[in-house]
């Protein structure tokens, strides 16, 4: 047993002494990744000069799926998008393992065409695909975890809402003339009501002017502040894009699960990552004229915040809005155990960019488990 530990220590020491190129070349399943990184010398140089990083390395099977994906970046040889995707697999910090507790991690994807999100602080995210870690090793600059699928870049708010089936919200934004404006904002937290929430007050909304509808929708967007569930404390107050206050509260239900409310609306799906921030799906439309509305923690569902509002017989604002074609990853995020400080670069490169959330169930093939290296 003693000799085995010595042998493992020697192997770990040898692996830690490897630079990135050597570490990748020693993994036959990463030959395609090595080939593609060599096609982007500036990106390879950037990654090689960074310290304390974690590389989520797609294996050859992942590349085969990507290359065969009809209309995908690799099949279309979209070099700009391919480089962005590869950057998105580099995490800021050396992470040896992941567990089911939430943590948010920045990636090396910088601001630009595929993200509109500044590095504000240390609770940043990266987005996951339905990937499984197949092997792990360390190298001079941090850790390499081999995964069997590519991570997916986050979409903008309206495209994400479509894929979540939130067609009423998308249609309302279009009617109000706000869809493009919301997608172009930087660093936003957006509370998007479910279709049923719009239907519950749909009769009243049908008589509202475009200005009234805009005022309601703007009250759902916090501009300049990206708030993930772990950032939220009971009594947190934030300001909407039309300069009106929102109150966020938390409640521990009978199952010991923390539930988040915005005014009187319950967050039913938290932490949906988008290119310019985060979306939380809520069960009621927020009313800028009723900013003191408080939640009923014991109710199965809250009444609309619009007193006396009339409902519609079906979904509203959905005419001409596309239906979902893909599945958006939502739900739990996973924490990572770091062995080192945040990454840095000697070349003065831009700070890494937060664009997603790691899902434990997805990353570990359906089980929120602890992975120790």
From TrEMBL:
Pfam short name (any one): Fasciclin
Domain of life: Eukaryota
Residues spanning the membrane: 349-371
Keyword Disulfide bond: no
Annotated ranges, domain FAS1: 17-151, 154-286
InterPro entries named among the record's database cross-references: Adhesion/Biosynth-related (IPR050904), FAS1_dom_sf (IPR036378), FAS1_domain (IPR000782)
Keywords: Membrane, Transmembrane, Transmembrane helix
Entry protein name: Stabilin-2
Provenance organism: Cyphellophora attinorum
């Amino acid at each position: 047993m003693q000799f085995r530990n010595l042998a493992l220590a020697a192997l770990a020491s040898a692996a830690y002494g490897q630079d990135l190129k050597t570490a990748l070349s020693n993994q036959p399943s990463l030959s395609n990744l090595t080939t593609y990184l060599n096609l982007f010398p500036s990106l390879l140089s950037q990654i090689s000069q960074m310290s304390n990083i974690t590389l989520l390395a797609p294996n050859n099977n992942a590349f085969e799926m990507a290359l065969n994906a009809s209309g995908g970046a690799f099949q279309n040889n979209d070099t700009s998008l391919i480089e962005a995707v590869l950057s998105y697999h580099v995490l800021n910090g050396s992470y040896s393992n992941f567990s089911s507790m939430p943590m948010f991690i920045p990636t090396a994807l910088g601001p630009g065409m595929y993200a509109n999100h500044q590095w504000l602080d240390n609770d940043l995210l990266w987005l996951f695909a339905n990937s499984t870690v197949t092997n792990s090793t360390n190298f001079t600059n941090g850790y390499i975890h081999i995964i069997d699928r590519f991570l997916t870049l986050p979409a903008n708010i309206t495209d994400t809402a479509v894929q979540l089936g939130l067609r009423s919200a998308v249609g309302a934004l279009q009617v109000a003339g706000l869809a493009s404006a919301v997608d172009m904002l930087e660093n936003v937290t957006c509370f998007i009501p479910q279709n049923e929430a719009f239907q519950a007050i749909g009769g009243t909304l049908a008589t509202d002017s475009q200005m009234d509808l805009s005022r309601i929708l703007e009250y759902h967007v916090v501009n300049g502040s990206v708030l993930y569930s772990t950032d939220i404390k009971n009594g947190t107050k934030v300001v909407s894009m039309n300069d009106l206050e929102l109150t966020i509260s938390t409640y521990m239900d009978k199952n010991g699960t923390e539930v988040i409310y915005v005014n009187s609306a319950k967050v039913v799906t938290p932490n949906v990552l988008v290119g310019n921030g985060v979306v939380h799906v809520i069960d009621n439309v927020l009313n800028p004229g009723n900013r003191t509305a408080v939640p009923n923690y014991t109710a199965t569902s809250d009444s609309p915040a619009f007193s006396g509002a009339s409902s519609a017989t079906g979904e509203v604002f959905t005419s001409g809005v596309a239906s979902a074609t893909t599945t958006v990853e939502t739900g739990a995020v996973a924490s990572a155990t770091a062995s080192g400080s945040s990454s840095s670069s000697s070349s003065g490169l831009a700070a890494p960019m937060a664009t997603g959330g790691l899902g434990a169930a997805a990353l570990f093939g359906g089980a929120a488990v602890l992975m120790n290296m």
